[in-house]
Amino acid sequence: MGIARMSDYKIVALPVTLVEVMWDKMIPHLKKAIEISNGELTEEGVKGVLTSGHNMGLLICRGENVTAVHTLEVRELSEGLRVLHINAIGGEEMDAWFEQYVTVMKAIAKDLNCTEVRGCAVRDGWLRYLKSTGFEKISSTVRLKLGE
């Protein structure tokens, strides 16, 4: 198949009406994100927020194949700050399409009157990767589990 180029990929906004139809092609890409979400995400929950329209689904496709899946939502923070938040991201071949994805994500954020794009980087490797596209670390999340 050769080396993939950015132009080989299409980023497609998934209409709510097609979530059910595309789910079997989407969920394999989201499974890892769900597994490492510390219980914040479930398959049923992700599907629910997509089918209800509370989250937007973006598919990264190479030809007819889904290569990656992302879920986004607009969050209104204190003081009226409006942020496009990346809730889940999973897929393959990221080196080939991520730069194009950031450009599309910025355009979506601006169209939705957001001033920032945010997400959680569960693994430190993500932080190193994201720096090259302009992301910066603004906080860390810590947890103390309480026994039963």
Q: What is the secondary structure topology, with strand pairs?
A:
Blueprint: E1 9-14, H1 19-35, H2 43-51, E2 56-62, E3 65-76, E4 82-91, H3 94-111, E5 116-119, H4 124-131
Parallel strand pairs: 4-5
Antiparallel strand pairs: 1-2, 2-3, 3-4
Features:
alpha+beta, 35% helix, globular, 148 residues, 5 strands, 4 helices
Description:
This protein has 148 residues and is α+β, with helices and mostly antiparallel strands. The protein is built from 4 helices and 5 strands; from the N terminus they run E-H-H-E-E-E-H-E-H. A 5-stranded mixed beta sheet has the order 1-2-3-4-5, with helices on both faces. Helix 1 (19-35) crosses helix 2 (43-51). The longest helix has 18 residues, at 94-111. The protein is globular, with a radius of gyration of 16 Å.
How many H/I helices? 4
Largest sheet: 5 strands, mixed
Order of helical and strand elements: EHHEEEHEH
Helix and strand composition category: alpha+beta
Shape: globular
Give start-end ranges of low-pLDDT stretches: none
Strand line-up of the largest beta sheet? 1-2-3-4-5
Count of beta strands: 5
Radius of gyration: 16 Å
How big a fraction of the residues is strand? 25-35%
Q: Give helix % range.
A: 25-40%
The pLDDT mean sits at: 88
Give the CA-CA distance, first to last residue: 53 Å
